[in-house]
Design goal:
38% helix, LysR_subst-bd, eight-stranded mixed beta sheet, alpha/beta, 9 helices, DNA-binding transcription factor activity, Arc Repressor Mutant, subunit A, WH_DNA-bd_sf, DNA binding, 12 strands, 297 residues, D-Maltodextrin-Binding Protein, domain 2, LysR_HTH_N
Length: 297
């Protein structure tokens, strides 16, 4: 048994697919299959129940998984301590973020991180399903850390540090019946057409849940992948929006406080729960502490 075999085993166990595990590890499926067979031979057990349609963990495989993860984490920590003592902090850091997140200047932050830790290989990605997809990637080990905008009820399995909480606002065109209101309640929006983010994005999920709790049907007329695009569609008269109040002011769009319910969108940095973060992740988290742009909300 060696660390490479354990790494391949954990990848297959988390993906429940030899093909996806090979893609995650940047290798070919035959290499992963050979490593798993060698590990099963060494341990004299079957780790996976295989069929033509699915792969599942056997009882022995389920027992091995937490121990394999712990062993790999211990090896990573030992390697990091030795390498840092001799050459400085190094390793790989996989970061997930939302598209065009103006609240945090991630490029500047990662630039400062690279200057301080040039031997750490940083990879940055987004998810087509927003914060929900990023959270799932962290839970399954595909990301080391991610910036999320999800409510607490959807952060299970994650260790989370809150960076900022932003109130929601209602965006309407100047000609709208509510444009002169001091504030707006959710029931005032019954019967309206809406512009919103795609399903899976944290702020969209919060608004959908708020309307469901209030028993108010909602028709989303326009869905966009980027929060910065929402005001443009509101200005064009294609609907109103309920979004975190972090978008820059746009001519032809009125921002109204949402008074009832008092919704707040939370920006958090998340890592997987129950696992000691690498030294590179800890170093990055320290920079996130002061990452929110002042005066942004």
């Amino acid at each position: 048994m060696d660390s490479r075999q354990l790494e391949y085993f954990v990848a297959v166990a988390e993906e429940l697919s030899f093909t996806r595990a090979a893609q995650r590890l940047f290798t070919v499926q035959s290499t992963v299959s050979a490593a798993i067979r060698a590990l099963e031979t060494d341990l004299r057990v079957t780790l996976f129940d295989r069929s033509t349609r699915r792969v599942t963990l056997s009882t022995a495989g389920a027992a091995l998984l937490p121990e394999a993860k712990a062993a790999l984490e211990a090896l990573d920590r030992a390697r990091a301590v030795v390498e840092e003592a001799s050459t400085g902090l190094r390793g790989n850091l996989r970061i997930g973020t939302m598209t065009r997140l103006g609240l945090v200047d991630l490029a500047e932050l990662l630039g400062a991180f690279h200057l301080k830790y040039p031997l750490v290989d940083v990879q940055v990605t987004t998810s087509p399903t927003g914060s929900s997809g990023l959270a799932d990637d962290v839970r399954h080990g595909r990301l080391d850390v991610a910036l999320l905008g999800l409510p607490p009820s959807e952060l299970s399995g994650l260790d989370v540090r809150e960076l900022a909480a932003v109130p929601f606002a209602v965006l309407v065109p100047p000609s709208h019946r509510l444009a002169g209101a001091a504030s707006v309640a959710l029931e005032d929006l019954a019967g309206e057409r809406f512009v919103d983010m795609l399903r899976g994005f944290g702020n969209r999920r919060m608004v959908d849940q708020a309307f469901e709790r209030a028993g108010i049907p909602r028709q989303v007329q326009v869905e966009v992948p980027d929060l910065s695009e929402v005001p443009e569609y509101v200005r064009a008269g294609l609907g109103i929006a309920v979004v975190p109040d972090i978008s820059p002011s746009v001519a032809g769009v009125v921002h109204l406080p949402l008074a009832r319910p008092a919704l707040a969108w939370t920006l958090s940095v998340a890592t997987i729960a129950g696992r000691t973060p690498s030294r590179a992740v800890v170093a990055l988290q320290e920079l996130f502490a002061d990452a929110v742009r002042p005066g942004y909300f």
